[in-house]
């Protein structure tokens, strides 16, 4: 019946140790096959129904591991929706969940509408007739709740911004369409150079919007921050400082934190999921080694890294390796133990990680902490972001923005290749439709209206 | 009195819709009666003599592909023909012809008169006769009653027609013709909701009084072109040229000074006029910065001096019209032969129709053409043939012919009308068709001729010729995709000579054809084994291959769309019984009564939630029916 494949996070948003991402539809198994590798990095050729697989979800682009997961396979018709269903049980942090969701989307799934799993369950005969009415009211109430929040989200700066961009696209379309439908009335004057310039501008604005949407996402769902460093530089005490409580066990013994510890902290109004990682060093201890591996994964996924260094010690080989790694991401070099005499070579450090900012603290006394928190907040939000500007947060909207941008890029290519107007118009239509999904407007009628208001056409 | 002969179908009105409807009905084997207020006005072209252009040419080709008459009739009578949008792709290229108006009428009349099973009579219909909610025939002005199983109303602008010229207005169907007053009253009495629209036409001037040296000549193309698949390209006929002139500041000042005398601006005209066909006074007011507007001079026929002034449509008083015409350089001494005018008329709100064009209120009663709120000869003819086919199909117990938006512009036209309605005279535009790249004038037969054949409108001989063409296109497409070229020295040299890049690896001929700089013609040297093929086969094959990527993308969207279209809603559905529908959604559904979930999803104001609920409800009903059947067996 419905042949496309849908995906959604089925656990409630926000805090939680685990999150379940559910995929249903004809393509579910294929998506699992492309994204999932077992612990021994193998592709699973045939998934057995009602079996749980342990392994990793990979990034389709670079093949890197996103998260360690348990994957449950429920083949049709023995699933809730009576379609092939894959349930990915991942770690509850928003970052890996979003990343997995994004991967399933690029592998061909689409985001489920509210209540769509239930709807499919019913349509495929999983629910009996008596339950149907209940289903319908659930769909209605959920969607209306969703709509309300969507409406409130769309009020304000950003929605106006998107509508403005959509109107610009409609204007471009009207120009092309008028030229097609009224070839004897509309004068062809440098239409294409003009259009190209406008499309270029639109792409830039959309890119900005997507970037700001990412900041909105951080405000809503929290950013992730990883505290890294070699053993016993004071990572756990820094986490405790941020938390303002003693949660991590702090000892003098290097390697005390063997796994990754995480906690939600509030930094300058931004919810941040902070990960305290095992000290990274070569080790023979098996348990500690697993911790080190997990730490490296956390580093990959974090929005921001804090590299903690012991200011009372000279730099070591391990420090410089970590610093080079941090230089690849947004990171802050935190020189701890300011309360002790300093022996660290700051110049060498700056050379190793040129883009990173550098701050001194003492996690023992709390000295330097306010400055550090301010730096983290400004780095996450880009400094000058005003709260009310950030309203695009939900992944569906971001996805629509991305689709619009891609369509515009294709359209620009089409013009550059000398494709005729009706071909370019296809891409511009796609772009306007994608933005229309956010603002709830339809393209065709708007274009027709625009043709008649912008151009004097007709006999 | 009741006329003794019983008809299957009666068509009221012999304009472009009525002619197609009557012919389709008679050709499908129904005894048919065509009634017209004036036998001398059959297939009249009351506005300009142009047929075709973007989207409209596609409509004509579709009518032709289904077995209709318009294309053939244009080919018999055109005086000027051009292909528009040649600089753009094949999807939006469009033929545009000007015809000899009288010749066009005579040819159509002759076709009607030689059609078996078709009677043509002059009479004014005053009443639609019904028993219960089914139509039984019509009563004409003389009191005579004709009986039939179906009636198709195609009365154009005649219902409550009111002509405006300046401060004067008078009831008329068209200039010089009776309006139809009783029919509008009758339809209201039967429970139909009517709206009011306005349209207009420019003055005609005498060719002998024009200084042509002041105009820019636009000659007809002399390449062989034709509208119908059956005619074959026509060349060598005496062609008439057009001239292009312009209005100027003096023209505009004259219009602005006399706006208070325009019925459009004084508020006397209440009906909504078409935005795409603005009067000159409208254009001057809405685009005050434009210093000039184009005026095309079109000859109305080989044997007449009348010249149509496209671009000068007006309902200003006649003295102002004369001054406006005289202000145009080259027309200083022009004599008006007929003044321009605006006409207001009643139309049937088309959401009261099923996609078959049958009215929802009265079984067997159909409406087609301008009465449904459209404008344009082509739009009218397209509805005419569909109403004719569907009325005949219903009588013969065949399944109805409903064209999808992905199959034809006709599908877009009718779906828009019956689903969204219209607030201005509806004109077809290519921008209304979301699957425009698939709906080309070049492939109308591939899309529709099979259907026309199935309904008996395409004769065997024509069908065989079509089947051969279809096969040739398929074979040639396959050959181009399967024949591979290796990057040999010779191939690289030939490509270089053509100014195209060399090959990196072996590719198919189709891949080479997809290059923007390549055409089928240009790559002849690379493809020495190609079979000799007619040009229409080559151009269709070329288009399919060149735009394959885009066409496939649209095809994919079409599949999604058709899935919803295929989910039918039973006619007797009780929307009140679906408790979770929103109140607004329920009212909309009850008003429009969509035939499919697809149609429902296009109703303005219906939310996706309502659609989901509707789907769930339909599925619930289906399962219940299934269970009951199981129990019984």
Characterization of this structure:
The complex is a heterodimer of chains A (459) and B (633). Chain A has 459 residues and is of the alpha/beta class. Chain A folds into three domains: 6-112, Probable tRNA modification gtpase trme, domain 1 (Gyrase A, domain 2), CATH 3.30.1360.120; 156-216 and 391-454, Four Helix Bundle (Hemerythrin (Met), subunit A); 223-381, Rossmann fold, CATH 3.40.50.300. Chain A contains 14 helices and 13 strands. In chain A, the strands form two sheets. A seven-stranded mixed β-sheet of chain A has the order 3-4-5-6-2-1-7. With 633 residues, chain B is of the alpha+beta class. Chain B has four domains: 2-198 and 345-443, FAD/NAD(P)-binding domain (3-Layer(bba) Sandwich), CATH 3.50.50.60; 204-341, Elongation Factor Tu (Ef-tu), domain 3, CATH 2.40.30; 477-550, tRNA uridine 5-carboxymethylaminomethyl modification enzyme MnmG/GidA (Arc Repressor Mutant, subunit A); 567-632, GidA associated domain, C-terminal subdomain (DNA polymerase, domain 1). Helix content of chain B is 36%, strand content 18%. Chain B contains 19 helices and 22 strands. In chain B, the strands form five sheets. In chain B, strands 1, 2, 6, 7, 8, 9 and 20 form a seven-stranded mixed β-sheet that branches. In chain B, strands 14-15-16-17-13-18 form a six-stranded antiparallel β-sheet, with no helix packed on it. In chain B, strands 11-10-19-12 form a four-stranded antiparallel β-sheet. In chain B, a hairpin with a 2-residue loop joins strand 10 and strand 11 (168-171). In chain B, helix 6 (249-257) runs antiparallel to helix 8. Chain B is globular. Chain B starts with a strand and ends with a helix. Classes of the chains: A alpha/beta (459), B alpha+beta (633). At the A-B interface, helix 3, helix 4, helix 5, helix 13 and helix 14 of A face helix 16 and helix 19 of B.
